[in-house]
Design brief:
By secondary structure, the chain is α/β, with parallel strands linked by helices. The protein has a single domain, classed as Alpha/Beta hydrolase fold, catalytic domain (Rossmann fold). About 30% of the residues lie in helices and about 15% in strands. Helix 2 packs across helix 3. About 40% of the residues are buried.
């Protein structure tokens, strides 16, 4: 059975030049479609992720960005589904005091070990998570940690195109 790749964008969704959107267009990956991208409620996002993974079949790799990484951490504590792997890119630090107030129920960030292989990818100048905090997430989740240097929040503004380095990390999870 083929592996299904699901992309999971963060707050505000991923626009047309975001690498997640480009991966979907280039490789046929499927997006987890949240009902409200701009006023996310953790329980709703977790429920949508659960339904999407259940419908995707037994072989799933998830590619989460920003707030979706927190969604995955919350979801992992309750799901019975096992992922082949998850790429957690630029995990937003939901515990920061300046986190957007329209984001509801994501704090505190779960720090339990994830029950599937995972890679956390972070940059040195991400305005939504410090490198040290991203390393803390990776250690707590049992994830491999990859520092990609100064690439901001690894989003549309980072100008990554198809982001070959991220695609290579995904291939490692597909192994």
């Amino acid at each position: 059975m083929p592996t299904t790749i699901l992309t999971a964008p963060g707050l505000g969704n991923s626009g047309p030049i975001h690498w997640q959107t480009q991966w979907e267009q280039q490789y046929g990956y499927q997006r987890v479609q949240q009902h409200d991208w701009n006023h996310p409620v953790c329980a709703d996002w977790v429920q949508t992720l659960e339904a999407t993974v259940a419908a995707a079949g037994p072989q799933v790799v998830l590619v989460a960005h920003s707030l979706a990484c927190a969604t995955v951490a919350h979801w992992a504590a309750t799901t019975r589904h096992h992922l082949q792997g998850v790429l957690l890119v630029a995990p937003a630090d939901v515990d920061r005091p300046d986190f957007p107030p329209e984001v509801v129920g994501f704090a505190p960030m779960p720090l339990a070990r994830l029950p599937f292989p995972s890679i956390v990818v972070a940059s040195t100048d991400d305005q939504y998570v410090s490198l040290a905090r991203a390393q803390q997430f990776a250690a707590a989740w049992g994830s491999r940690f990859v520092n990609v240097g100064a690439l901001g929040h690894l989003n549309s503004e980072s100008g990554l195109g198809l982001w070959p380095q991220g695609y290579q990390l995904l291939q490692e999870l597909l192994g």
